[in-house]
Design brief:
heterodimer, A: 111 residues, mainly beta, 4-stranded antiparallel β-sheet, globular, B: mainly beta, 6-stranded mixed β-sheet
Chain lengths: 111, 115
């Protein structure tokens, strides 16, 4: 089925470890986004991309890096995980104003 | 910068009662406006959106929202709540002058439906 696929779905990291979250979409969307969701705070934009090879900072970019080497993939990296990065991470893709298509999320716990 | 406020982190209604979830935006130029729903352990699903034209917008599952420029509001309503409507609802805005189509989300309202 067409959509946005996030891997992994769950992960537990130790403080200081690194990891990469993968987001893949098969809808040929130009725009892709990474959000984090924390209780009572809604979704906050981490980084986004308006096309292959482009990335930009969102509202809460510190501690994260991203890459969009291929149009269909948007990777979110944590170089040195901190407990404050415990969250649920959502990837989304968009075709102009049709609306976002969201992945099912990655639940990350940093201990 | 754009911001969006959702009044009430939790709203509780009886099954069959009117649902009203409130959303206000901050910008002087009306943004694009969206409502999303999130069921437990799932991603967000688009309910409806307002970009231009008719200010009363109908969405999925019997929900609708009305854009009121004078009140900078985009409240979500449903005439009769169903148990399956229990979920978290997010209002979101996108700046009309921002070509990245970034969405700024409100903090969410959890809807509880009592039998």
């Amino acid at each position: 089925n067409a959509g946005v696929t996030q891997t992994p779905k769950f992960r537990v990291l130790k403080t200081g470890q690194s990891m990469t979250l993968l987001c893949a979409q098969d809808m040929n969307h130009e725009y892709m986004y990474w959000y984090r969701q924390d209780p009572g705070m809604g979704l906050r934009l981490i980084h986004y991309s308006v096309g292959e090879g482009t990335t930009a900072k969102g509202e809460v970019p510190d501690g994260y890096n991203v890459s969009r080497l291929k149009k269909q993939n948007f990777l979110l990296g944590l170089e040195s995980a901190a407990p404050s990065q415990t969250s649920v991470y959502f990837c989304a893709s968009s075709l102009l104003l049709v609306g976002y298509t969201f992945g099912s999320g990655t639940r990350l716990t940093v201990v | 910068a754009q911001s969006v406020t959702q009044l009430g982190s939790h709203v509780s209604v009886s099954e069959g009662a009117l649902v009203l979830l409130r959303c206000n935006y901050s910008s002087s130029v009306p943004p694009y406006l969206f409502w999303y729903v999130q069921y437990p352990n799932q991603g967000l699903q688009l309910l409806l959106k307002y970009t231009t034209g008719a200010t009363l917008v109908k969405g999925i599952n019997g929900f609708e929202a009305e854009f009121k420029k004078s009140e900078t509001s985009f409240h979500l309503t449903k005439p009769s709540a169903h148990m399956s409507d229990a979920a978290e609802y997010f209002c979101a805005v996108s700046d009309r002058e921002d070509s990245s189509y970034k969405l700024i989300f409100g903090s969410g309202t959890r809807l509880l439906v009592r039998p």
